[in-house]
Amino acid sequence: MAQHELLKDLLILFGFATLIALLLQRARQSSIVAYLLTGILVGPSGLQLISNHEAIELMAEIGVVLLLFSIGIELSLEKLLRMRKLVLGAGTRQVILTIVVSLSAALAIGYPWRQSLVWGFLIAASSTAIVLKLLIERQELESLHGRAILSVLLFQDVCVVPMMAVLPSFAEPPGRMVLSGLRSLGEALLIGGAILVTARYFYPALWRYIVRLRNKEIFLIAAIFFSLGTAWVSSVAGLSLAMGAFLAGLALSESDYAHQILSDILPLRDGFTSLFFISVGMLLNLQTAREHWSMVLLFAAGILAIKLLTGAASVLTMGFSVRMSVLVGLGLAQVGEFSFILLHQAAGLKLVSEADYQAFLAAAIITMFLTPTFIQFAPFLATRVSGMRRLSRFFPQPGEPELEKDAGPLRDHVIVCGYGLNGRLVAQALRDVEISYLVLEIDPVLVSGASAEGVPIFFGDSTQREILEKAGAGRARAVVFAISDPVILPRAIANARAANPQLAIVVRTNRVEDTEGLERVGASEIVAAEREAAAEIIIRVFQLFGISRREAFNRARRILAQSDRGTLRRRA
């Protein structure tokens, strides 16, 4: 009968979660919010439909292990090294600033310094799952602010490991706390290093043997065994289950089998992880939250304000524009899923009171619920803030006087906006045929490196009409927007057209469906990566069957032209 009760509980949880997720999908809310609301609805303070809480919590713990194992694989040491300037620069600033500001605010309110530091840990993390999903949906992950947000999120995820290691020392007496914290951190480094070395040098050989069996079921079972087994060894050695799983995933991130392991374990991870977020929602006491509603709103407003300011400051102090800083700040303004893990650990150590626990839990859910709205309106707010003249006095755009001076003598030149791969290739081509050009870029690292190589590049936001005018848009022959941010392109094109009605505006975009809107705001030529990729695929397939490249090219263009006419008819 106990098994039947557990099955009934799981059916209730997944049934309500499915229904709520479908309803929230229309409001563009994350499934994590749906799981949290499910727990609130069916839990002890809601409909009280669940009886087997212990079994649900055990499965939720497995979900945490699988979540951190997959996060470790996705992080990849190579990815961290490739993005190290933003990860270490913006990430370090954001985490340290958030902890310091949160600690100061909590001390000012009257909390003891230990609890205040706990608040700093809890508030420092943002939601990787929610934010990345929204950025991917909006095609902003490859934009500069998208990469900056991703870098900070990666650093936050890494920081959770030492936070989990030192948190138990906060429960020690004052005289032993520092020593206990250092010992815990040292043990975590030693045990973690041993796990990393073991996993890195012994796991691949075992995986090679497993792969040779060519059995998908054995491969999946082995992936579960490695993640749960390493987590268990970690807990026996004195670390947490979650930390061991994270280290195992990180060690496997560079192996040849990492992508397949992640692909196979994702469905299982998502199922168990959903139970973790549901169990978190079940812990929320609606009665306590109602009684302390002013504290909940204060926590939510404080978290949003602190995260917005520290997120924006983390990239602003690296030399990025005000506009981009606001975009990053709004993207990081919520509480993260790892905060719930730390909150659960802090509650077990009696570092957080029941009232504070409930208030923070409710406030965290509010911040997550507001995240899609924040990210949707972030471009509009960032544009308005960056256009405030009073603010520009405090944060002037570096390089503007040099831009206006060097662009002064140019006539019939080309303005290249963005110095990624496409921008670099366009600039090189213009240089080879001796056509005058200059480059506008908002990444100060790129500007510094390219300027040292002699490239006529300037720090400037090409979406602003003033910057385009200083770059000589009124005298230029053409402007090339080699940027991959679909949100800002329409405004940038409209400003370029307003600066010079005769200007040729060449635009790069990812999706064909965006071309009509870009033409409407003034683009002269649009290169859709989706369309050009399709043309090249068709050409290469034709060549495999002996059709010459010239004929294949003509056939591909005719096919795409027919497709374009069909699209226009459907729109009409």
Brief write-up:
73% of the residues lie in helices and 5% in strands. By secondary structure, the chain is mainly alpha-helical. The longest helix is centred in the middle third of the chain and has 39 residues.
Features:
Na+/H+ antiporter like fold; 2 domains; Rossmann fold; 73% helix; 572 residues; single chain; six-stranded parallel β-sheet; mainly alpha
List the helices and strands and how they pair.
Layout: H1 2-25, H2 31-42, H3 53-75, H4 77-82, H5 84-109, H6 113-124, H7 128-137, H8 144-166, H9 174-212, H10 216-236, H11 241-252, H12 258-283, H13 286-291, H14 293-316, H15 322-331, H16 337-348, H17 354-386, H18 389-394, H19 400-407, E1 414-417, H20 421-432, E2 437-441, H21 444-452, E3 457-459, H22 465-470, E4 478-481, H23 489-499, E5 504-509, H24 515-520, E6 525-528, H25 529-544, H26 549-571
Helix pairs in contact: 1-2, 2-12, 3-10, 3-11, 3-12, 5-6, 5-8, 5-14, 6-16, 7-17, 8-15, 9-10, 9-11, 10-11, 14-15, 14-17, 15-17, 25-26
Task: Explain what you see.
The protein is mainly alpha-helical and 572 residues long. It has two domains: 2-387, Na+/H+ antiporter like fold; 400-523, Rossmann fold, CATH 3.40.50.720. Helices cover 73% and strands 5% of the residues. Helix 20 links the parallel strand 1 (414-417) and strand 2.
CATH topology of the largest domain, anyone? Answer: Na+/H+ antiporter like fold
Number of helices: 26
Rg, nearest Å = 27 Å
Helix content: over 70%
* Biggest sheet, spatial arrangement of strands: 3-2-1-4-5-6
Give the overall form.
globular
Q: Please give the largest β-sheet.
A: 6 strands, parallel
How many discrete domains? Answer: 2
Mean pLDDT: 80
